[in-house]
Amino acid sequence: MKRITIKDLSKYLALSTSTISRAFVDDKHIHPDTKRTVLEAAQKLGYRPNPMALSLKYGKSKNIGFVVPEMTTPFSSTVLRGVQNILYPLGYRVIIMQSEEDPEIERKNLLLLEEFNVDGIIINLCHETYNQANYQHVMQRGIPMVFFDRIPPNALDVSKVLVNDAIKASLMVEHLISIGRKRIVHLRGPASIRNAEERVSGYRRILTKYGLFDPALLVEPKGMLFQHGRDAAKELVEKGIAFDSIFAFTDTLAIGAMNYLLEKGYRIPEQVALASFSGTEMATIVHPPLSNVQQPLVEMGETAATLVMEKIKDPDVASKSVTLDAKLIYRASTLGMPV
Amino acid sequence: MKRITIKDLSKYLALSTSTISRAFVDDKHIHPDTKRTVLEAAQKLGYRPNPMALSLKYGKSKNIGFVVPEMTTPFSSTVLRGVQNILYPLGYRVIIMQSEEDPEIERKNLLLLEEFNVDGIIINLCHETYNQANYQHVMQRGIPMVFFDRIPPNALDVSKVLVNDAIKASLMVEHLISIGRKRIVHLRGPASIRNAEERVSGYRRILTKYGLFDPALLVEPKGMLFQHGRDAAKELVEKGIAFDSIFAFTDTLAIGAMNYLLEKGYRIPEQVALASFSGTEMATIVHPPLSNVQQPLVEMGETAATLVMEKIKDPDVASKSVTLDAKLIYRASTLGMPV
DNA sequence: CAAAATTAAGGGAACGATCCCAAAATCACA
DNA sequence: TGTGATTTTGGGATCGTTCCCTTAATTTTG
Fold this sequence. Notes:
Number of strands of chain A: 12
CATH superfamily of the largest domain in chain A: Response regulator
GO molecular function, one term (chains A, B): transcription cis-regulatory region binding
Keywords (chains A, B): DNA-binding, Transcription, Transcription regulation
Domain HTH lacI-type (chains A, B): 4-58
CATH class of the largest domain in chain A: Alpha Beta
Oligomer: homodimer
Structural class of chain A: alpha/beta
Largest interface: A-B, 50 and 50 residues
Protein name (chains A, B): Transcriptional regulator, LacI family
Number of helices of chain A: 13
Number of domains of chain A: 3
């Protein structure tokens, strides 16, 4: 019931706490026999080092903050799994904060994490105006930050994990062209997020190349939720803008749009083909399943966790940007493989 | 940069650390003027109490473990929001563990949480044989546990948050009957989970009442994932068992089944109506949207958090079972409102 | 106005571990 | 067998806070 401490072992074995401690850290100033005795006694009495004492001693909480816009889609939770894969075996705990796509909540979450004394933060920005001042404040406090997926503009010197957004976006758009689509809508992401811009530029470049670009087809939803994807599709339809396919910033937006279209009786993919950028399980649970650019989400989390650990071990290590490779997955929403 | 401690304030104000401390806790043995001075200085220098020191002092980590089968569907993340609503303002941190529907991982997660020194655990069981011995071990260590949603059999004396499963299940099945269905499949949950049994009994009771019960329609999927729902539907079809509707243990199973049926060209709800028990956002993002028994997920999390806090404050308080009320939501997958 | 009662402030142990420094035990070797 | 070198152990400060126990200052009271 009561926790066994080093002092208990010390009494039990009639040895000083220093000696007991030496048995656990790899200290050469201890007799091998003594070490064995201590380890056995520890085993027998069920000794476990007290993480709170170590936290206090070393000034490290061994907590890492994980800030995401939401956890209701599988995106963040899949990345989280990667993060946990790396951090749990190292004895680090992960504390999750959902900013619900609201920069104000995101700000509060960062403050709370600071309060909680986290040793590092892994963050995916929420979609609106970003909290540059806050990020800087956190980092000045000596808490390393690693960004993934939604990356801030270049100004900030931080480690980042991203994918080759522009290229893959353009390839996916090219795929739509290859299946004969000419009026390709892009439901874009917010301008405050760098990779939203990258995906837009990939989209624009390839359409311009084929002479198909039409600014009326580049639309910015009011937010990142299903409802917003839905609203965007509705607006297109009601404005009478013709389109034969949609490439969306996220699975969520794509599915929102898809649902509206299905309700209105559009046939998918015959009348409107759909593709998105994300790579969550959601793409496979809707009907028809969605073609998308699949990001290596678990790997993304693992990379982010590794980067944050690097910064924790050596705060002066240079910031890194790791670019992972995303894969194009063709599903029924775009009629199978491209020619 | 460097953390301000009580000692810094002590030097700055030429007061003992005791006095400084008294200004923060509500101690009457301090002159109001002194208190004001201290508080002002704290504000000015940016003093924040060190949670790690408090943890050590009080033997409480202020960490709560949250163990769930998975986070890739919105179920757990919505409950999590409720948990966070209650716990974050109290200065508690939430550590999430995904057991991936695997009892072995669940076991390891519990050990890890014990290692992490959590003050309490909120848990939703994974679907397979449950780790009774482990739950008991954790509780013997003095860590209170609160179960929600998937509840263990009665043997365990723990606090629980559940919904009125049997009744709502029977009402939903009755709804299917009211829209003229006679061959109602139930994709049931695992026998090791009490509310799976409850839902089955609600299903069976109402069908028996109407003389519609057929054991061939009560099927147990091989797991809890989309794929398993899908497989179950496939098997029914391939075995040539006639059915005109499905009532599933979770949204996930229902959607898995639905996708298979849609692919095979079944019209939903005309040929097969679908309903489930869960209440996640997923039900609304598929087409047609799914009728389901909607559990108050956020409230569930809030209740679980409140119960665990009660046990933390007073370990001897009696275990409680709180039953929340679930709502039936009728959507297009069952053709609108019942008559 | 002195003694008693009250109020305010300070000193230092405690929580559990590590680690520096000193002390003791062992060993090597002349 | 004694001296110095080496190995092994112990003592105690430290991290930041609270809280018990004194001590000092102030107020009340006869």
